[in-house]
């Protein structure tokens, strides 16, 4: 078995997570929420509404579809044939 990504101390270990959190921080800001629930709700709203549904950055490798459109297509593919 081979390790799929870098090793401890490698700059590539957390690159995807750091990129995501940089986008989140830039777009949602560095708000201080009253409670964890409020923070979760705000992040959930951002991910579901702003990021997944209306994100304009569509990648050519995925046919220029949004994450929401991709999920819908996947559900159609997985639905049992009638």
UniProtKB/TrEMBL annotation:
Domain of life: Bacteria
GO terms for biological process, alphabetical: DNA integration
Domain Integrase catalytic, residue spans: 18-71
Protein name, UniProt field: IS3 family transposase
Family annotation (InterPro entries): Integrase_cat-core, RNaseH-like_sf, Transposase_IS3/IS150/IS904
Organism this protein belongs to: Streptomyces brevispora
Stored Pfam families: rve_2
Record PANTHER family: TRANSPOSASE INSF FOR INSERTION SEQUENCE IS3B-RELATED, TRANSPOSASE INSO FOR INSERTION SEQUENCE ELEMENT IS911B-RELATED
């Amino acid at each position: 078995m081979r390790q799929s990504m870098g090793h401890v101390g490698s700059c590539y270990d957390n690159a995807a997570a750091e990129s995501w959190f940089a986008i989140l921080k830039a777009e949602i800001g560095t708000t201080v929420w009253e409670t964890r629930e409020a923070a979760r709700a705000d992040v959930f709203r951002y991910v579901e509404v702003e990021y997944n549904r209306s994100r304009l950055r569509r990648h050519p490798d995925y046919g220029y579809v949004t994450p929401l459109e991709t999920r819908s297509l996947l559900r159609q593919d997985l639905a049992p044939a009638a």
